[in-house]
Automatic annotation (TrEMBL):
This is Protein RER1. Keywords: Membrane, Transmembrane, Transmembrane helix. It is a multi-pass membrane protein. The keyword Glycoprotein does not apply. The keyword DNA-binding does not apply. It comes from Picea sitchensis (Sitka spruce).
Length: 192
């Protein structure tokens, strides 16, 4: 039985610590699920810390560019339907395109929670990368910024055209409420 001992520095102790940490992390992650505003504010704080770090260090533009491309990729997944009508052979699992089609709710390819978790993780990893000089490649950052903006505009244009073509909106503002027919007879309500 090589490599397995009972003392604190053993592989068994490390595996136990990793398992405990993983359970505790998953517990807090599960507790954060019903609080989207708090989660996104925490992500905004992580993004702000990363941006301030890059601003004060005046470097790590390649890391920022890679982060921007990754976030753009996540955004496209968040805005795209799970079943893409262009990719699927229209085998019944498509978005409704006419008013007479059956209503099918919009299901994202990338759910909101995974979108949030991936973005937060990406900002944290990028922040850690700013402490290693090997990732600070000297580049002319305005070129990277212009290229990313052009890429963002072209990608969003394609996504918006896709949304218009297949008539779907990837956002909902909560539960829709119906008030019914409003009565126009005000005299009937004032009778005693």
């Amino acid at each position: 039985m090589e490599g397995v001992t009972v003392d604190g520095g053993s592989p068994v102790g490390l595996a136990r610590w990793r398992n405990d940490f993983s359970r505790r992390f998953q517990y807090y992650l599960d507790k954060s699920t019903p609080h989207p505003v708090g989660r996104w504010l925490g992500s905004l704080a992580a993004a702000t810390i990363y941006i301030l770090r890059v601003y004060y260090v005046q470097g790590f533009y390649i890391v920022s560019y890679g982060l921007g491309i990754y976030v753009l990729n996540l955004l496209i997944g968040f805005l795209s339907p799970q079943v893409d009508p262009e990719m699927e052979g229209m085998d019944g699992a498509s978005l409704p395109t006419k008013g007479s089609d059956e209503f099918k709710p919009f299901i994202r390819r990338l759910p909101e929670f995974k979108f949030w978790y991936s973005i937060t993780k990406a900002f944290c990893i990028s922040f850690v990368m700013t402490f290693f000089s090997v990732f600070d490649v000297p580049v002319f950052w305005p070129i990277l910024l212009c290229y990313w903006v052009v890429l963002f505009v072209l990608t969003m244009k394609r996504q918006i055209l896709h949304m218009i073509k297949y008539k779907y909106v990837p956002f909902s503002l909560g539960k829709q409420r119906y008030s019914g027919k409003r009565s126009t007879d005000k005299a009937g309500s004032s009778r005693d």
